[in-house]
Specification:
By secondary structure, the protein is mainly beta. Helix content is 14%, strand content 39%. The chain has one helix and five strands.
Length: 74
């Protein structure tokens, strides 16, 4: 289902990340690392990470982080 460093692009990618609570890493579009955690919610324009961090999808890249359980892997 998910692979390490897979970029979340489509709404279904974000939906699955929320549902399965997979770790996510957030990067600015210029490559600067911001935060890691689990997605709590997302909308068309934004993402809520760890119930605290709020990021705009247009300004950031969201990648799958380190996966602890092999059931998430393809």
């Amino acid at each position: 289902m998910f692979k390490r460093d897979q970029v979340l692009v489509h709404s279904v990618d974000f939906d699955n990340a929320v549902f399965f609570q997979v770790p996510i890493e957030v990067f600015m579009n210029d490559g600067k690392y911001l935060e890691a955690g689990t997605l709590q919610a997302h909308s068309e324009n934004g993402v809520v990470l760890n119930n605290e961090g709020r990021y705009l999808k247009s300004n950031c890249t969201f990648k799958i982080g380190y996966l602890h359980q092999s059931s998430y892997l393809k």
